[in-house]
Protein 1
Amino acid sequence: MQNDWMRDESLKDIEPYKLEFLQALVFESSNLKKEQMIPFLMAVAKRGQEKKVSFSDKEIDAVVAVLRKHASPDEIAKIEKVMAMRSRR
């Protein structure tokens, strides 16, 4: 997935630095194995706190909807797993 998704009109109200943060995460996580995902997500959460990057539920929903439009079936499966983990908290 390239950064074309970042130019989607439905993301126009999200600060560009937030989208760039997400894009970096997409590339960093692309080759992770299942057992590496939890430690990775914990590190991401810490990095987000350090950089003061946070997303409202509305922003998360918009980003996920756009990512689904631009993602491959494998990427969609990863998105679904992450969203399932998010809903359990």
Protein 2
Amino acid sequence: MAKTPGKKPVGKVKKAAPKKAAKKAAKKSSPKKVITEKERALRAANLIANSEKKGSLKSTKRPKKTATKAQTTGLLESIVEGMKEKKAKNITVLNLTKLENRVCDYFVICDADSKTHVNSIADSIEDTVLKLTKEKAFHSEGQQNGEWILIDYINIVAHVFLKEMRDYYNIEALWGDAEFKIIED
């Protein structure tokens, strides 16, 4: 193409690439930034915090449950009844209501002779409580291992131990300030 003075060039002229396309091309060619574990954790925390504000993720906090004394007593009695139904041993109720930093109002603890016995007691507790009080457990864990099953009813937490595990963890000593009540058959 020949240039004439004072005139625009004749023929096709390439246009300059738009800024966005240029940035995109530069990004592809530049090395990726390495993200540290701390940055990854912060991003995850921000994502969770933002989505909880929007209500898209379910909160993992324990719901606050205000139960009347009669409801709590009925739940407590039905848990003990479920334990007795499957011949649980050494049933103990720890009253934590007078402790300042308690996680719940009561612990109900028992032990069993075998892993099968532990699982059957835990199943009996959940069935009996559902039948008598129409309450479902908020959380339950330990069924796979069968050495210590915890059943959480918010105000009351039931612990079903294998005898050796109960002796090892000794929850009664950890919550030594609580009032104890041993249930006799």
Protein 3
Amino acid sequence: MRKEKTRDMVLCAMFVALIVAGAFIKIPIPVVPFTLQYLFTMLAGLLLGGKMGALSVCIYMFLGLAGLPIFAQGGGIGYIFQPSFGYIIGFAAGAYVTGNIANKTSRPGFKRLLSANFLGLGIVYLFGMAYYYLISDLYLGTPIGLWPLFLYCFLLAVPGDIALCIVGAILGKRLIPLIKERRI
């Protein structure tokens, strides 16, 4: 039991580090930069399960809000007023849902993993776009219309994230059995 808890803590910490690294691997696009954070938050859910995956993202979020510059555009408590902070909240919710769906069976198939990834992606975008809209309007005083919101916060970013969903499903199919058999 103790050995398993230690293993879970190490894997959780590893995913926190991967999410941090993913924030710095970015492709600049207008409004919200494309990063590899989604890949690592999705894999945290797939490989660690819903609770531990979401915990990894929450630890990442806490460290960033505590002042470490580990978010895509910095860090600190003031980051909650960044319009893109909703995506980070969405990462936690997405990891939880992705992990719970994927781990309903002991050996999930590619279709289940891909479906879980797409649902998690939808949750990330739902949180991200809603937060962006609200912060832009209520805090920044620069309201954004629904079409520009959809264009900049979804259409320009989603093709890369769809590719990450496919990559995540492929990696999950290979790695989940190894994690469950305690080889990792």
